[in-house]
Amino acid sequence: MTADEARRLAPRFVARATEYDRTGSFPVEDFADLRRSGLFGLMVPTRLGGMGAGFADYAAVAYELARGNGATALVFNMHASVTGALSGVTDELADALGLPPEALEARDSYLRAAAEGNWYAVAMSERGAGSRLSEMATRYERTADGFHIKGAKTFCSGAGHADAYLVAARSAADPSQVSQFLVPAGDGLSIEPTWDALGMRATGSHDVHVDVVVDETALLGGVEGLALVVAQLAPHWMVASYAAVYVGVARAAVDAAVEHVEARKLEHLPAVRARIGRADAAVAAAHLTVMEAARRVDEAPGDAETNRWVWRAKLVAGTTAADVAASMLEAAGTSAMRRGHPLERLYRDARAGSLQPATSDVCADWLGVAALGGDPDSQGTAPRW
Amino acid sequence: MTADEARRLAPRFVARATEYDRTGSFPVEDFADLRRSGLFGLMVPTRLGGMGAGFADYAAVAYELARGNGATALVFNMHASVTGALSGVTDELADALGLPPEALEARDSYLRAAAEGNWYAVAMSERGAGSRLSEMATRYERTADGFHIKGAKTFCSGAGHADAYLVAARSAADPSQVSQFLVPAGDGLSIEPTWDALGMRATGSHDVHVDVVVDETALLGGVEGLALVVAQLAPHWMVASYAAVYVGVARAAVDAAVEHVEARKLEHLPAVRARIGRADAAVAAAHLTVMEAARRVDEAPGDAETNRWVWRAKLVAGTTAADVAASMLEAAGTSAMRRGHPLERLYRDARAGSLQPATSDVCADWLGVAALGGDPDSQGTAPRW
Amino acid sequence: MTADEARRLAPRFVARATEYDRTGSFPVEDFADLRRSGLFGLMVPTRLGGMGAGFADYAAVAYELARGNGATALVFNMHASVTGALSGVTDELADALGLPPEALEARDSYLRAAAEGNWYAVAMSERGAGSRLSEMATRYERTADGFHIKGAKTFCSGAGHADAYLVAARSAADPSQVSQFLVPAGDGLSIEPTWDALGMRATGSHDVHVDVVVDETALLGGVEGLALVVAQLAPHWMVASYAAVYVGVARAAVDAAVEHVEARKLEHLPAVRARIGRADAAVAAAHLTVMEAARRVDEAPGDAETNRWVWRAKLVAGTTAADVAASMLEAAGTSAMRRGHPLERLYRDARAGSLQPATSDVCADWLGVAALGGDPDSQGTAPRW
Amino acid sequence: MTADEARRLAPRFVARATEYDRTGSFPVEDFADLRRSGLFGLMVPTRLGGMGAGFADYAAVAYELARGNGATALVFNMHASVTGALSGVTDELADALGLPPEALEARDSYLRAAAEGNWYAVAMSERGAGSRLSEMATRYERTADGFHIKGAKTFCSGAGHADAYLVAARSAADPSQVSQFLVPAGDGLSIEPTWDALGMRATGSHDVHVDVVVDETALLGGVEGLALVVAQLAPHWMVASYAAVYVGVARAAVDAAVEHVEARKLEHLPAVRARIGRADAAVAAAHLTVMEAARRVDEAPGDAETNRWVWRAKLVAGTTAADVAASMLEAAGTSAMRRGHPLERLYRDARAGSLQPATSDVCADWLGVAALGGDPDSQGTAPRW
């Protein structure tokens, strides 16, 4: 099982996590391990040399990786999102969308490369627009034999380390069209090292300045204007794929607290036991919620009921991670606040869960609207993507 | 599926719930529905005319019944516990325990009667002892051809309505032996109507005074002193079987709030949407936790890891039910506080979950002990059962 | 000190609270005690025979009364609101508002009667309009020598027992004018016994049907259209005067839990101690918040900063009461769920705090708006009063 | 008023806080400001050139300083503890304790030096013992004309910057005697830079190795074995003096969130308003609790009821700070997670409150014991100091 492989790697990630966190540097060795393990091919169909995993498999892997290092798992999540979304464009769907044959060839080529050890980052967010595709300021223009893309991206996890980047941009000719490109690492992309954050410090989510010319095959789907369609087909990759990571972080916090309490012989304190007991139950419930959402994504991706599970997973995972990490630090006591103590890092990492889009407050609103028979997609004035 | 049958009955229960709650009277009509539906045979093996359900099937049924009326579901839970535990004494287990053949005949006879429409209550708890078998004050003595049982029981749900009662008692000859008897309704059992509680008012959990002579077949297992063995084999029936009921109550609260908010056209209030959204996610997570625990009970009953899931389920269900019902009442507003409004009842019913043994605080402690590598069974001075 | 007198009465209220709650009947004997104690004159200036208390004195009294019986304290709160608001119309203010001399005579007459043992209820809320003056449907018309008032009121605490009722109504001639009348008990007011609620059952907050002719002196202020002015001058009586009651209820819950735990000898349970300790601190903090708001109301009534304290008091008191009562019931265990146990009642009574207007959710929003430099009064579309 | 002076300094502290936090270096400039302001003499009687402040004055100052920089306020707190405790040894008390005249001279000399710009740190905690005086491993021996003190201290805020250090040590000759010395900065104290923590990074709470000879005047009180007596006389300096700091941190978090939300124009988001509104009320309630405890410390230091308020203040301040900072970060969104953003630091700083002794869990237990009529001092096996 793919999750077993991830579980095997996690202790190595744990051993390195403190240092990557301290320096805020990219987990190069973790990614070397991932490459060797073949997990870059996790979402790649077996016919292209991959593991042919579904979303539930992914969630199980992400949870285990995050028990090792949440930041590593978050960057991996981006790669999984790209390869997962590409794999989701089946031949049938391609046919239905009227995609040209070259697009399928490009898709296969990107996926095959992933199975062989390439990995992809996502350069989607922009200052101001966040990750809303409809507000992207990055522009592209057709050239003789490809596209010229220009703009600035932010929060690009793994920037400077990926083999290629998924870049969303708007057509200069027809601003209503937002397209996605897979841009190879190289001269046209320059990294501005802006990432220096409270938690998840090792994701290297720096700014990326894009001024690059790519050939036709870089246009995902081979047809312009597909970005919004894909976002609506696969909201789980934009909302819920983080969720498994944060449950893994929460479980790591419980584990670290248990280890700390045992080492300090504090088991006799009832308040400590109660904190750990309640945290254990909360993490277990959140884990089930994420796995159920993932299962449903595999069964009926994009369905209204699936999306509700996706939002539930995001909401429960984010709130649980922050609450659990805070309580575990309180269970462990002041000595766990020293930098270098796993709980010190996990407390910071865990806080990010609720804030990553869709935030906990947004998920709560969407769930409320849906429970009340409304459609969150048509709610309010701001477009969701 | 058995849960479908329960789902079919729930709306009828809803329609009657207010009145049973108001008067604190036993839900006679709900039980007539249950009898007709065949659900008394839920836990009875098919070879004896029953539905042959497992614990997970039971949990699904209990959840649906509780969406109708939590009190009805709680009484049903007691019957399911008795029949479930009886069914759990398989021929193999009976052999291993050295049970006499007559005990198996009696077992089959009780189970067949259940499939035919009899239902059983549990007269276990005593004032002071709670439900701890090791502290039972009710005594029994051997007579020429049976037993004479004498004592007082409390919190006996369905008292005065069941066809027979599971009575735990201690041997007068050898106080170390605690046995369980199935005592038919009749003269030796007198009901003292003491039940008048905040919530779950329709369970009729009155006191029962026992002064009765029963024949040999009433001794469950046919051998004295088995009560503790059974409790340890099947802790799920003593701890977790309530859990599904309280998740059903919590879901009913969300449903009632949605109905109320829609009727009053309050959907535009962001605070109301946020409350409903968060409640929806919390109930979904609790539901999954209960179902996972139930699944594991079927797979590996009594295992250490199964027991942890059982405690998680009880803890999460109890806390979620109380929190969700309180928040839903706040979402609905003062008009939902009128007696007769579903949320008014559900708020009271939901509070009982954390307090039923094992309480939330106890489950948290056990989970903490287990996470810290300890054994909750050997913890502290008080015996658990 | 007036609070001492209230503290003296509280144990008597406690002794009667269970029965008034059970039957949902008005606390006649508590009110006889209040009359004898002179507390009906609490807010009446000393020159008119009263105690000349300020808002902080009132809050201290309300807290103590509520430790006895929250319902009694809530009804008393209505009387205090009427007499407090009347006393707040000083001669200077009357002059500034251009009130006629007869209005001041009427004011003094009503206040003197209160000091002599009369008490007043409030018939403000209407179905649909809530307590928003701007949406009142009750109408009045001028007659030869007075007014004819006609309409239906709801949530009138103490209905059928008060000596007179403050009735808000809209002018039939000029619907923009909302006026308040003090209508003597009698034929023109008929009580419809609709109050049958989860908590605060003894307030007798029934519906009142008004079809009555009153003389000129009944018009408070002697000038039509003053209702909104008064509401804006004294928002504390419409928002915060409940707050002290709910802190008293919360403290009563802690006291009842302590008594229960001591009687059952459960002090050795760490989870019980932790619950009581946290509840004790929360109630203490809420109490201070209410008293600070009250102090500021006396110093600078209606000021922006005073109003923020009023909302803080309402929010903190309401949420604390509900949380504390729920936790105390959990600390005490199942036996405290029996009807007749103080905690059973207090759990229900406490829930009402957050729901009474302004609700906790509304207070949170107003406080957020104010913190962000906005003016909650001009926020949104719905008028506040 | 002394708090005004602190309020005047706070904005300067804010401006420097990010950098001191980033580098984990001691806030040298803040302390220069404090020296110039005369606040080192805050707790020094006016007859010795100080400000003659009481505990409530201190709490008001600490709150304002912490709105600037919590770490600066925490170090200042240590100095205030030393000077406050010294000032608390009045001539009357000295007489009652039988202190020698030289001790009073030494006291006055230390206090006069503080008023003139010296400040004192506390070297109390030890690894393993925490701050429990009864378990100190640091030893002292009498020498010809003084004492030789030897041992290792941890968590010494301001280590390397103070003019003298309060060192607790146990008599080698009679281990039952624990004494306190004021040791001048210099050769006998060596700083091991161990402090590198999640939050409150600028306190420089490093380890201090003590191997020093001091003269007679260094022995506080002039009599050996007084440390425990003082601890019991002034528990507020060991428990509650942090509380004001953490409420200041919490208020700073609300202020920072308001500033962030206004700058980003997010006021229209209801979830943001609700978070800020609830946080504002919680901080206000916590602030009142701390000020009430401080007021009572001035009125009746060491009384049982005063101590309860001290524990309440510590509990409410610690939990409020952590909860509020977490929620404010969630209100502000991902951009506030960047290092250098005030909320990023405040989230880390705020977490320390509940963990500093007495921890929130310990305070809750003590409060529970006290509410149940017990005496927390005689509770359990572990000595409190």
Structure description:
In chain A, 62% of the residues are buried. Chain A is of the alpha/beta class. The first copy, chain A, is built from 13 helices and seven strands. Chain A starts with a helix and ends in a 14-residue tail after the last helix. In chain A, helix 11 crosses helix 13. In chain A, strands 1, 2, 3, 4, 5, 6 and 7 form a seven-stranded mixed β-sheet that branches. Chain A has helices spanning 2-23, 28-37, 55-68, 70-88, 91-97, 101-115, 227-233, 235-239, 241-263, 270-299, 304-332, 342-355, 360-371; strands at 120-123, 139-143, 146-156, 164-171, 178-184, 189-192, 206-215. At the A-B interface, helix 9, helix 10, helix 11 and helix 13 of A face helix 9, helix 10, helix 11 and helix 13 of B.
Summarize the structure.
Chain A has 385 residues and is an alpha/beta fold.
Mean pLDDT across residues of chain A: 93
Per DSSP E runs of 2 or more residues, the count of β-strands of chain A stands at 7
User: What would you say the CATH architecture of the largest domain in chain A is?
Assistant: Up-down Bundle
Largest sheet features of chain A? 7 strands, mixed
Give short descriptive properties of this protein:
about 15% strand, homotetramer, Butyryl-CoA Dehydrogenase, subunit A, domain 3, alpha/beta, Butyryl-CoA Dehydrogenase, subunit A, domain 2, acyl-CoA dehydrogenase activity (chains A, B, C, D), about 375 residues, FMN (chains A, B, C, D), Butyryl-Coa Dehydrogenase, subunit A, domain 1, 13 helices, disordered C terminus, AcylCo_DH-like_C (chains A, B, C, D), seven-stranded mixed β-sheet, 3 domains
